[in-house]
Amino acid sequence: MATPDYKKVTHCIFDMDGLILDTEKLYTEAFNSIIRPFGKEFTLEHKAMTMGLKIQNTICRIIELLELPITPQDFTEQFSSIANKLFADCDLMPGAERLLRHLKQNNVSIALGTSSSVDSYKIKSKKWKHIFDLFDHKVFGGSDPEVVQGKPHPDIFLVAAKRFSDNPDPSMCLVFEDAPNGVEAAVRADMQVVMVPDPNLPKYLAEKATLVLKSLEDFKPELFGLPPYTK
């Protein structure tokens, strides 16, 4: 049974970067390798404003925020070259594998809803194919034509919900996110959302989340009416 504080759900949708894969620090490293020659720095404040966006939107926003004398095309080309090397060996975030396997073993429908493109996903997930094969389906906001607007718009999560075989009502879906833009997208989609933010992120940026955790290791499925861990 779900607790009085949370509504029972039947389906789960997961973000990828910073939630399943430990890539957010790699994004920061890649961005700063491009930005620092201009005497600027991509800070946590900038990160909070851009996390969860489609990469092209992120790049345009960074250029705008830092007033960089570089075109989006040049930035993208440099980023792609750097990121492909960095992301190929990324690690899983704590608790991600255990939770995904638990939900799958208990016949809970799970989907991936990431702002990454298919090509970017293939690079990041190559080492973890056996984990990503657990998902019923995957929605790639960076390349899916049905995801017209990226996070913080709700498109990606509504598309993910619609593609479950039983087409559940959005309110029956629980989103897992690490980014404020992703949380906003889930809220706009009328979904509850569990947030696992960067520990340095200002607390007010997590206020819209249904539940905020330090790690996926701390998640208790039974809070939302999902099968509890047995060991």
Record keyword descriptors for this entry.
single chain, 231 residues, alpha/beta, 6-stranded parallel sheet, 6 strands, globular
List the helices and strands and how they pair.
Layout: E1 11-14, H1 24-35, H2 44-50, H3 55-66, H4 72-87, H5 96-105, E2 109-114, H6 118-125, H7 129-132, E3 137-140, H8 155-162, E4 173-177, H9 180-188, E5 192-195, E6 211-212
Helix pairs in contact: 1-4
Q: What amount of the residues lies in strands?
A: 5-15%
Shape field: globular
The overall average pLDDT, rounded, is 93
Measured between the Cα atoms of the first and last residue, the distance is 19 Å
Contiguous uncertain segments of 5+ residues: none
Oligomeric state as shown: single chain
Question: How are helices and strands ordered from N to C?
Answer: EHHHHHEHHEHEHEE
Give your account of this protein's structure.
With 231 residues, the protein is of the alpha/beta class. It has helices at residues 24-35, 44-50, 55-66, 72-87, 96-105, 118-125, 129-132, 155-162, 180-188; strands at residues 11-14, 109-114, 137-140, 173-177, 192-195, 211-212. It is built from 9 helices and 6 strands, in the order βαααααβααβαβαββ. α1 (24-35) crosses α4. The model has no long low-confidence stretch (mean pLDDT 93).
Report a brief summary of the structure.
The protein is α/β, with parallel strands linked by helices and 231 residues long.
